Amino acid sequence: MKLIECHNLETAYATSLNRPILNDINLDIDQGEFVVLLGLNGAGKSTLLRSLVGLVPLVKGEIHIHGLEMTPQTLPKIRREIGMLFQGGGLIRQLSAIENVLCGRLGMRTTAQTWLGFPKRDCILAQELLGQLGLRDKIYQKTSQLSGGQQQRVAIARALIQSPQILLADEPITGLDVVASQQVMQILSELNTQQGLTIITVLHDLGIAAEYAQRAIVLDAGRVVYDGKCDNLQEQFSQVLSL
Ligand SMILES: Nc1ncnc2c1ncn2[C@@H]1O[C@H](COP(=O)(O)OP(=O)(O)OP(=O)(O)O)[C@@H](O)[C@H]1O
Ligand SMILES: [Mg+2]
């Protein structure tokens, strides 16, 4: 059984594009894979990632995660298996690093439990994660006062606090300098190799993609135009997109 299966995914027709945003997407991803999602601006990469956590209405097709078909009933269970790093971070700037990380636990708690605050074990786990990601001295700092690379690590900790099996990362290194980019990619790589986390990440840098991922999927106008190894990625990318 594949970890992620997408069959014939199609979104509603978008009049602004004269086509559906996602158009007949078929994909299978195994446990433990490190996949990079590539394509030009507007190709549908973010939409595809968001569809895997049920944030995109589909008019056709099916998504199975661990054999479980995504339906309104199964979505809460599926979402607990998937951590997501949104394009641009998606952190709450007014909250501290640890408060943002604890937000990653909200999906596991009822509204009433949320009123009571987070249990001590969640707070300890959040502190440990931030420590492991090199932010031990920033735990109580307001997120707006952290650098882009530090914010990205807070976002990773928030995604990891629910111990997901799958991590979806939408442009995790966009806007970061060379050193911070390598650090974030290294963190993702270690999560993949050491903890067996399945990773799908959107990147725009083909060199970094080839350095870290084993498999590349290229989207163009909502369709998969390449799905294969990262060998000669620059050439493959230019060829499939006729650049
Ligand atoms: N809610 C929406 N309603 C209508 N069109 C949308 C919506 N969301 C995205 N689109 C359009 O769908 C296309 C794909 O958007 P998406 O954000 O998935 O692209 P992307 O590949 O992630 O691009 P980028 O590299 O710029 O992040 C774009 O043309 C966008 O304008
Ligand atoms: Mg995007």
Automatic annotation (TrEMBL):
> Which GO terms fall under molecular function for this chain's record?
ABC-type phosphonate transporter activity; ATP binding; ATP hydrolysis activity
Keyword hit for ATP-binding: yes
List the GO terms this entry assigns under cellular component, sorted alphabetically: plasma membrane
Task: Cite the ABC transporter domain residue spans from the record.
Answer: 4-243
Q: Which InterPro entries match?
A: AAA+_ATPase, ABC_transporter-like_ATP-bd, ABC_transporter-like_CS, ABC_transpr_LolD-like, ABC_transpr_PhnC, P-loop_NTPase
Specify the superkingdom: Bacteria
Q: Does the keyword Ligase apply?
A: no
Could you list this entry's UniProt keywords, alphabetically sorted. Answer: ATP-binding, Cell membrane, Membrane, Nucleotide-binding, Translocase, Transport
Quote the protein name from its UniProt record.
Phosphonate ABC transporter ATP-binding protein
Which PANTHER family does UniProt cross-reference here?
IMPORT ATP-BINDING PROTEIN (PTHR24220)
